[in-house]
Amino acid sequence: MRKIIIAGNWKMYKTSFEAVELVNELKRTLGDMSEVDVVVCPPFTALVEVKDVISESNIGLGAQNIYWEEFGAFTGEVSAPMLTAIGVQYVIIGHSERRQFFGETDATVNKKIKAALKHALIPIVCVGEVLAEREAGKTFAVIEKQLEGSLAGFTAEEIENVVLAYEPVWAIGTGKTATPVQAQEVHKFIRDWLTKKFDAAIANKVRIQYGGSVKPENTAELIGQPDIDGALVGGASLKSETFSQIVKNCLALK
Ligand code: PEP
Fold first, then answer.
1. Spatial contact of 159 and 203, defined as CB atoms under 8 Å apart
2. Of residues 216, 159, 147, the one with CA closest to residue 187
3. Is 214 close to ligand 1, i.e. is its CB under 6 Å away?
4. Residue 230 Cβ contacting ligand 1 at under 6 Å
5. pLDDT per position as a tens digit, 98-129
6. Which residue in 97, 104, 129, 167 is the catalytic one?
7. Rounded distance between C-alpha atoms, residue 73 and residue 7, angstroms
8. CB-count burial class (<10 Å; 0-12, 13-18, 19+) for 91
9. Distance 195 CA to ligand 1 centre (A)
10. Is-contact 97 65, C-beta < 8 A?
11. How far is the CA of 71 from the centre of ligand 1 (A)?
12. Which of 16, 60, 191, 197 sits between 20 and 30 A of 152, alpha carbons compared?
């Protein structure tokens, strides 16, 4: 049985003061939650303060990016050991906004996953097609290429520690959500790919989140699908009421 994982991607929102306000509210509503893994991913500047608030709770802490080297002359970058040193447990890798605006490729995503796993950070690895690719009937081909490139060279034991996130790019921040049927068929495709590459036991263990305009109203129908194991939530994670409600709506599922 895969445990549901709900992660909030705060993107470039919230000063450290605002982040502490939000996470204090989340601690009140979700701090004791053990049925669902709850993770918040604030900007780098708020990680330490957020960690201080959630350290005595069940809420996990994630970053939104890492660089693959451990240290060196890489101005502006942050490494895996720097994150683990302050108690970060998860890291989002290959988000479509990083692919679109910061030139990330499957090859750089692959190096970042390697660095994360080496330092026992759980990578949340994002894949997803843009609208033109979906309309051209290329969704599965695009997802397969991203999986092949991003996950190249990992062992089964390593893959078990990866969380995947299927995020159709046309559904991110647009208010358009994939239908449960559209989302489930891609999640099933990803799980079948894992079976082919590794084996059924590994494929059954890996958690695959859906991301793209998830909100309280559509949580149950999406996460109720057999191969959808949680959500990566952007906009709706910025308010404690909506994020908490998404998590609570998962309690009756699976
Ligand atoms: C995201 O940022 O990963 C995301 C899914 O955003 P939103 O929920 O706002 O679509």
1. no
2. 147
3. yes
4. no
5. 999 999 999 999 999 999 999 999 999 999 99
6. 167
7. 31
8. buried
9. 27
10. no
11. 30
12. 60
Quick one: tokens of 7? 């992660």
Active site residue 95: yes
Which residues does 27 contact at the CB level (< 8 Å), separation at least 6? 53, 54, 57, 59
With left for phi above 0 and alpha for psi between -120 and 50, is residue 149 left, alpha or beta?
alpha
Tell the residue nearest (CA) to atom 7 of ligand 1: 234
Rounded to an integer, the average pLDDT of 132-154 is 97
Say how many Å lie between the CA of residue 98 and the centre of ligand 1: 13
Q: Is 213 a pocket residue for ligand 1 (Cβ < 6 Å)? A: yes
Q: How far is the CA of 233 from the centre of ligand 1 (A)?
A: 5
The Cα 67–Cα 49 span in angstroms is: 22
For 124: left if phi > 0, alpha if psi spans -120 to 50, otherwise beta; the answer is beta
Q: Given pLDDT bands bounded at 50, 70 and 90, which one contains residue 254?
A: low
Domains and CATH numbers, the chain: 5-248 (3.20.20.70)
